């Protein structure tokens, strides 16, 4: 003990000269031998500050071992420290010296930089998708209106000539399709024009209903019954309704398209909704298509990536922008038994409206 007192007396002034919190522990029993005022100021409030093991227990979180010397967040003051351990011998005693450098400010700068960068990236993505959608909508609107006009004219002519009935049916079906396309474009235009999306409380069941109605023809043509199974207690989501419809529409369309080549009896598409462990509302669109390889998975979300002769490759890019805007996550995974699952999360409306 006397040796320890002598060592403390010798060490203390040295530690005081260090401009960071600094403490020395005895290597053999881990007891504190000396510390500077900065250490007492920053760590004195920690229950275990007076011994190496106590300090470790107070600072340790599940995945951080302070013995390894690294960044920790001190639980008592919320600040970040970089820890440096050094061994030294004094008066024949082995000591472990710890210096803790406060790096909170650098971490804050890094964090704000990162979130600014993410925001910028996100905005530019949203803007390019928005511009692209605006151009497309504009370019497609004219020919579509003309197609509807020609079809109406042809229907009148067939009617005056008194048939044939098959031609009339075909023309009617073509007009329904053209009107459907025009309705989708009108929505895109509305979405692009409405710079500020309107978020509110919405029921997913209603959103899914609208989407199914839009895809009814396509599903019928593929002899596909789409199952919707939403948890009974699914709370409303906080979202822009048209945007979420757009996302669901794209995902279900992709699912339908993925099963185009397969035998109708094997086709199966379901939309599931539940609250996940984080309390978000999670929607999953599950198909029985060929699924995706890892390489395909990496490119999925890049604009203009498509494997379809009639695809533009912007469906998923738009979905991602929209879901990110809603603070959600867009993901995909293989479906058990074959096929893929494309899903997204949305925050619940509770407390936000
Ligand atoms: N459910 C799915 N199963 C298998 N592959 C898929 C699925 N969804 C998307 N993909 C793949 O990802 C690609 C990109 O999808 P995305 O929706 O972005 O574009 P697209 O469907 O090709 O064209 P569009 O712009 O008309 O949506 C698709 O071409 C397809 O290869
Ligand atoms: Mg698509």
Describe this entry's structure for a reader.
The chain is α+β, with helices and mostly antiparallel strands. The protein folds into 3 domains: 2-102, PAS domain (Beta-Lactamase), CATH 3.30.450; 108-195, Signal transduction histidine kinase, dimerisation/phosphotransfer (DHp) domain (Helix Hairpins), CATH 1.10.287; 198-353, Histidine kinase-like ATPase, C-terminal domain (Heat Shock Protein 90, 2-Layer Sandwich). The protein is 48% helix and 20% strand. The protein has helices spanning 2-16, 37-43, 52-59, 104-161, 165-193, 204-221, 241-258, 294-299, 315-325, and strands at residues 22-26, 32-35, 71-73, 80-90, 93-102, 200-202, 226-230, 237-239, 269-275, 281-286, 330-334, 340-346. A hairpin with a 2-residue loop joins strand 4 and strand 5 (93-102). The structure holds adenosine-5'-triphosphate (ATP) and magnesium ion. The site of adenosine-5'-triphosphate has 21 residues, from helix 7, helix 9 and strand 12.
């Amino acid at each position: 003990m006397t040796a320890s007192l002598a060592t403390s007396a010798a060490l203390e002034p040295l530690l005081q000269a260090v401009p960071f919190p600094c403490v020395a522990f005895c290597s053999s029993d881990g007891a504190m031998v000396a510390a500077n005022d900065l250490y007492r100021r920053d760590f004195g409030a920690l229950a275990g500050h007076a011994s190496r093991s106590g300090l470790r227990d107070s600072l340790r979180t599940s995945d951080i071992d302070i013995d390894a010397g690294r960044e920790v967040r001190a639980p008592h003051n919320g600040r970040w420290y970089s820890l440096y351990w050094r061994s030294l011998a004094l008066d024949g005693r082995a000591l472990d010296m710890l210096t803790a450098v406060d790096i909170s400010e650098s971490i804050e700068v890094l964090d704000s930089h990162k979130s600014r960068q993410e925001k910028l990236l996100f905005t530019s993505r949203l803007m390019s998708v928005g511009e692209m959608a605006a151009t497309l909508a504009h370019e497609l609107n004219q020919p579509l209106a003309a197609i509807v006009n020609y079809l109406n004219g042809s229907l009148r002519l067939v009617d005056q000539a008194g048939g044939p009935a098959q031609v009339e049916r075909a023309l009617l079906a073509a007009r329904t399709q053209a009107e459907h396309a025009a309705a989708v474009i009108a929505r895109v235009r509305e979405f692009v024009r409405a710079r500020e999306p309107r978020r509110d409380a919405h029921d997913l069941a209603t959103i899914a209903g609208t989407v199914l109605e839009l895809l009814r023809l396509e599903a019928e043509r593929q002899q596909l019954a789409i199952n919707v199974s939403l948890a009974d207690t699914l709370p409303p989501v906080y979202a822009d309704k048209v945007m979420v419809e757009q996302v669901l529409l794209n995902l279900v369309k992709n699912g339908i398209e993925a099963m185009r080549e397969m035998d109708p009896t094997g086709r199966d598409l379901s939309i599931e909704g539940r609250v996940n462990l984080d309390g978000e509302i999670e929607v999953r669109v599950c198909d029985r298509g060929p699924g995706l390889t890892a390489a395909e998975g990496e490119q999925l979300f890049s604009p203009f990536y498509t494997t379809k002769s009639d695809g533009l490759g912007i469906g998923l890019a738009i979905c991602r922008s929209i879901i990110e805007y809603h603070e959600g996550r867009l993901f995909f995974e293989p479906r058990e038994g074959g096929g893929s699952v494309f899903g997204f999360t949305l925050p619940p409306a509770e407390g936000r409206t």
